[in-house]
Amino acid sequence: STGASVVAVELLDAVNVLPEVVRANGYSDRVQVYRGDIREVELEPFDLVISDLRGNVPLFGDNVDVLAYVHRHLLKAGGVLLPFRDEIRAAMVSLPERFERAVRPWQSLDSHDWSAYRRLALAAPTRIQEVPGHAVISEAVTIATINYHDLDSLALRKHRFKGTVAATKAGDAHGFIVWFDALITEDIGFTTEPGEATPTYGRKFLPFQSPVALTVGDEIDVSIATLRVDDDWQWQWQTGRGQDRQMQSSLDALPLVAGDLAQVYGAAMGPSEGGGSNDPAPSVQRLL
């Protein structure tokens, strides 16, 4: 409505430009802009909160914690939070060029064995911008359903699909592609499934250690799980057919020295050494 007031809160530095845009369009009297974490801004509850804290999948950093905070502290009684719901989906894909790009640097080009680095490279989930629809060669499965109006859903720290997936095309599967279907309101939504243009989000690729040869109708045992570890989400994926099984985890992509283990599992770290001011920069800054 013409009398509505707006508060914009963003962590990224790109928000520094927003006050200029607001002033240029004559809305300075109705728009406030903050750079920082919304949980650290003193705000009154709202009638409507619109949020997009996703990465290439909705489980990204501590976004579910932020939205739970919004539910408890920043929504009026009867207030609305958008989006309503996200479903995280996955299917096996044939992406030979992408797979080759990941393994090529670690192939034995000399007398040395670089297979350990090859294994690490193929344990790292990566972002893929465009995935053609014809690359999908299996049924799609749902890993997680995130209901943003349900605090119990937002509190979950592990999501998993475990079951059998059938191949829909013949070919070599090089990994899982992960995307999401978003329901913004009851009748408005979008998807980032393969074949759709998704310039903002992309998709997550979970590569296999070695390609899996499939024919139409083949049934593969599949498990895909994502687990909240400290302030991030780690992934584990498995495939199996008879005795031929692969199991991978994004934690395997980390060089697990003591410092990394402490960070991953949230262990207390001692104070850092070195110069510099001991006064932290303000975590929230009012820009307009």
Keywords for this structure?
six-stranded antiparallel β-sheet; 2 domains; four-stranded antiparallel β-sheet; Rossmann fold; alpha+beta; 288 residues; Hnrnp arginine n-methyltransferase1
Describe this structure in words.
This protein is α+β, with helices and mostly antiparallel strands and 288 residues long. The chain has 2 domains: 6-82, Rossmann fold (3-Layer(aba) Sandwich); 85-255, Distorted Sandwich (Hnrnp arginine n-methyltransferase1), CATH 2.70.160.11. The protein is 16% helix and 39% strand. It contains 6 helices and 15 strands. Strands 5, 6, 7, 9, 10 and 11 form a 6-stranded antiparallel beta sheet that branches. Strand 3 (46-50), helix 2 and strand 4 (75-82) form a beta-alpha-beta unit. Residues 264-278 have low confidence and may be disordered.
**What distance separates the N and C termini?**
21 Å
Number of domain units: 2
**Tally of contiguous helical segments:** 6
Structural class: alpha+beta
The unreliable regions are: 264-278
Q: What is the element string, with H for helices and E for strands?
A: EHEEHEEHHEEHEEEEEEEHE
The top-level CATH class of the largest domain is Mainly Beta
Strand content: 35-45%
**3D shape:** elongated
The second-level CATH architecture of the largest domain is: Distorted Sandwich
Total strands: the figure is 15
Oligomer: single chain
| Percent of residues in helices | 10-25%
Rg value: 22 Å
Instruction: Report the major sheet.
Output: 6 strands, antiparallel
Compute the average pLDDT: 87
CATH superfamily grouping of the largest domain = Hnrnp arginine n-methyltransferase1
Report the CATH topology name of the largest domain. Answer: Hnrnp arginine n-methyltransferase1
